Amino acid sequence: MKKKLQRLLVLMPLLVGHLIFAQEKVVTGTVTDSDGMPIPGVNVVVENTNRGVQTDFDGNYSIEASVAEILVFSYLGFASERRAVETDDVLDVQLAEDAAALDEVVVVGYGTQSKRMLTDNVAKLTSEDIDEVPTPSVQSALAGKAAGVQVTQTNGKVEGGVNIRIRGVSSIGAGSEPLYVLDGVPLINNNESNNGAPTNPLLTLSSNEIESIDILKDASAAAVYGSRGANGVVIITTKKGKSGKASLSLNYSYGVSEPANLRDWLNADEYIELFTEAAINTYGEEEGLAVAEENFESLANGTNWRDGEVDTDWQDLIFQNGFVQDMDFSVSGGDEKTSYFFSGAYNDTKGIITGNELDRVTARANVSHRLTNKFNTGLNMSFSRTNIDRIANDNAFVNPVQAVAQPALSPAYLEDGEPNSNTLYPNFLLQDKYAFYNTLVRRVTGRAFAEYQFFEFLKFNTDFGYDLYYQTEDQFEGRLVPFQATNGEAYASSVATESYVTSNYFSFSKTFSGVHDLDVVAGMEYNNTNRRFQDVTGIEFPTDDFQTIESAAEITDGSGEETGNSFLSYFARATYAFNNKYLLKASVRRDGSSRFGSENQFGTFPAVSGGWILTEENFLQDNTVLSFLKFRASYGQTGNANIDDFASRGLFGGVSYNQRPGIAPNQAENPLLTWESVDQFDLGLEYGFLNNRISGEIDYYLKESDGLLFEVPLPGTSGRPIINRNIGLMENEGVEFVINADIFQGDFTWSTSFNIANNDNTVKSLPTDGADIITGQNILREGEPISAFYLLEYAGVDPDNGDALYYVNGEDTERETTTNPNEANRIVAGQPYAEWIAGFTNSLYYKGIDLAFTFQGEWGASIYNAGGVYQSANGDYYDNQTADQLDRWQEPGDITNVPQARFFGANGTAQSTRYLQESDFIRLRNLTLGYTLPDHIIEELGLQNFRVYFSGLNLLTITDYEGYDPESTSDANQGTGVSFYSAPAARTYSIGVNLKF
Predict the structure, then answer these.
(1) Which of 206, 535, 798, 936 has fewest C-beta within 10 Å?
(2) Which CATH class for the 139-260+319-787+831-873+908-996 domain?
(3) CB contact at 8 A, 333 and 343
(4) Cβ 971 vs Cβ 394: under 8 Å
(5) Where is the signal peptide (predicted)?
(6) CB neighbours of 247 closer than 8 A, spacing ≥ 6?
(7) pLDDT along the chain (997 residues), means of 10
(8) Are the C-beta atoms of residues 135 and 153 closer than 8 Å to each other?
């Protein structure tokens, strides 16, 4: 018996070990941060073994382990986590932030990287930065949030084009917009508007589906996108499902809008006063009075102007109270193998300008599935439909804002309720009633992907992306519309642009000897884009009830074209870290494009960067004040390919000669044409104090754009009108400063972020052998900023006689003046691009109450009001005037900047600095105030979250600019930084509710 007991005791450990081994299984899960964001690249190791894996892009992992074994989860910037394997097959882990590290994970193109180990300049925005901002434009929600990133909407139209400039303007002749990449798919971003005003192609995106936006600012970050990264890269990542219980989120908000600013115009009595005086000053007392009264009779259209029967507030008819309505829902969840995210959203926006509206429907489905422990696949798909009721461009007489030129004496409507057709300028109300211009955009984007993990350190990704942008535009103008000489006219167009991209790349990630971290990505990509456009115009309709081309009696015009381009690319990137403190990165991309000449179709775009985390050194590791300090430097080259397809080819087009068909050359061949090349050098310092409660970064950069693309006219004897060439050099130099602070922590939290950036732009050389290129009020001149203003210099008013004065030559120290603008010389008088931009964001929370707001500021830019020669012209023509024209010169000794009123006197109406103003401003861009119900109440309601909130957009603007808006400029291609009856931005107040089940 004793021997049997001894044998049993000897066998017990073996039996227990066998039982434990028998419970070995596959453990899966998701690793997230404190915000629930998945963390890719986390090391998951079975303690005291050599078994380990890494989480994929969605934070998922799968590993073989036995019950009671310990899994160790580690990632740079996060505190390591040890978790015992239990009977459950799913083990989700949330890693806590390591207070001693900057731990943000950023998307850098074909992968991700810890912000702490980054040697590039990348700005990251999360869904919290763009949620609940009441605007249909995702880009507008970014304003003020990232250093060196300027976001400007052209004007207050709901579909208005949005310009994003990253570290200044990098091109003159090619595009200046960044490359947008949605879940790895380069997005089509062409303006396809046909009414003369641009639209924003990215209106098709809804903010509810966006998880994060990473902005690659320096060349080291953007060079992996090679020929299209010169203007920076904006990487948009959509939301994904997470393992665990399914959740349903519902959001609804409704807001009202109004113009952010209005101007004061003359009422009927003031108009009569000013123009009577102007006519008398020109023609004398008796004749002037007769001329004035004759004009008033005509403008009053049969009403009694003497008794003030009509005093039309045209501005009140132009602008209206609009609204913004947003609804969206999402369902997400998953298990150890499958994760999913489904969402839908609806936006309904009535603009602040009469006749301008937008509605949009979007839907998204993101699904990923782990087929085996090594094979993961998924699909991202989205659809959107955007319907826009549009108005005319700023330079059209029927643009509603141009109605401010109508005198208040003129009635807007006749007694029968019809719009008055006998006004000084065409009455936009006729256009609004008897015409329409509709733009409808349908967009489909998708990405199918697969990932195979050969070993824990090597994986292969293959992606296929697709983007379809399909737009139709329909216009009808009835027989009563201004300028309509027929029984109605209709226009219809359609454009379909589709782009597909396939990417295949390997990723290698391994740590050697515990101190050498090496990550390598290498692969290829092919991108093909095709575009087809058609339009047709018809006239003579039986009645205005028939409004489509089918009913036109005569087809008067039509056109069609097809075009396309392709890119073939090879890329590689390697990052190396030694002992978590010495960092090195190198990348290269080789692009070939069909757009460029046969002898220069391929370009190579290299970049290199390095970093040193000083706080990992022994002499700083125990510092209680300085918690993080990193120095980084980078140099790289990117390209700009934003030109027309076939720009290098010799092109011919069909022509009609004496009603017979023929062909004629319209572009000369240039086999040497190639990319604009942008070389960028960046120095950066990232810092953290007091356990990173205060953190930020300081950057200096120098960007040099060489081989600028120009469309150069050729002499008529060449037989070809133009040729595209690489000529010119431009430079951007700047600094950026960012500071983030957690001011209070605990029950009351307050975090703040401030960024400010300076950019100096200089044209270094031009294709005209140094000769100026003057376009309207703008000039390209070597040594000056791009598109600087070139104007006569206004010298004010002669106090003796009320004459407008101009400086003869701005460089003369004596400052001689003249009353004849033809005797004066133009000067460089300012620039359209801000020298300084800044943003100030605060987030506060206390016992369920949250408050967040962002101020945005710009300094150093000017706006030229091209409409000023009509609307602020001291009674020179019939146009109604801004109220400040009442402060005109009237008698000797008057000190004023407004010359004497002279009807048809051209007194001070030359294009000059009189109409140029600095557009410096500080704007409360957005504000959100919310309240979340306490947990115990939410649980009783069966909810996960219940929050109500108020949100505002453009609530306050501090500026000395006297126009409608310091950001609004003409959308009719009338010059850079030029305003012409351009509508102000909308001020919006919204209330909303967030529910989560």
Answers:
(1) 936
(2) mainly beta
(3) no
(4) yes
(5) 1-22
(6) 331, 332, 333, 944, 996, 997
(7) 43 40 74 80 83 83 88 78 86 75 75 89 86 78 90 89 89 86 92 90 89 91 90 92 86 95 96 97 95 95 93 96 94 89 95 96 95 92 96 95 97 95 96 96 96 93 96 96 93 96 95 91 96 96 94 94 94 94 95 88 94 91 89 94 85 82 85 89 94 94 90 77 86 96 91 96 86 91 94 96 91 80 94 96 94 96 96 96 97 96 95 96 95 89 90 95 94 92 95 93
(8) no
pTM, 2 dp: 0.87
Q: Where are the alpha helices (DSSP H) in 343-390?
A: none
| First and final C-alpha spacing in the chain | 64
Confidence at residue 23, expressed as pLDDT on a 0 to 100 scale: 56
Neighbour tally for 935: CB within 10 Å: 11
Calculate the alpha carbon distances from 60 to 44, 75, 114, 521 in Å: 10, 14, 17, 20
3-state secondary structure 665-684: EEECCCCCCCCEEEEEEEEE
Q: Is the dihedral of CA 125, 154, 136, 317 positive or negative?
A: positive
CA distance 815 to 495: 55
Per-residue model confidence (pLDDT) at position 103: 61
The amino acid at 156: G
**Tokens matching residue 300:** 């009053």
337 vs 332: CA distance, rounded Å: 14
Which strand ranges, in their side-by-side order, compose the sheet holding 185-186? Answer: 122-126, 210-216, 233-238, 179-182, 185-186
Both tokens of 715, joined, read: 């002499």
CA–CA distance, 107 with 114 (Å, rounded to integer):
9
Instruction: List the Cα angle 301/316/300 in 5-degree steps.
Output: 10
Tokens of residue 567, six digits? 């890119």
Residue with tokens 């807007």: 412
Handedness of CA 343, 58, 130, 99 (dihedral sign): positive
Distance of CA 525 to the CA centre of its chain: 26
Exposed, middle or buried, 505 (CB in 10 Å: 0-12/13-18/19+)?
Answer: buried
Report whether 209 contacts 382 (CB < 8 A). Answer: yes
Q: Which two tokens stand for residue 750?
A: 């307050």
One-letter amino acid at 849 equals: I
Sorted by where each begins, the domain ranges of the chain are 2-98, 139-260+319-787+831-873+908-996
- Residue 615, Ramachandran bin (φ over 0: left; ψ between -120 and 50: alpha; else beta): alpha
Nearest by Cα to 749 from 687, 677, 842, 815: 842
What pLDDT score does 18 carry?
A: 39
Give the CATH fold of the 2-98 domain. Immunoglobulin-like (2.60.40)
What is d(CA 805, CA 568) in angstroms, rounded to the nearest whole number?
59
The DSSP symbol for 901 reads P
- Two tokens at 154? 């052209």
What's the token pair of residue 68?
């009671």
What single letter denotes the amino acid at residue 853? F
Instruction: Count CA within 13 A, CB hemisphere, residue 152.
Output: 27
**What letter would DSSP give residue 141?**
G
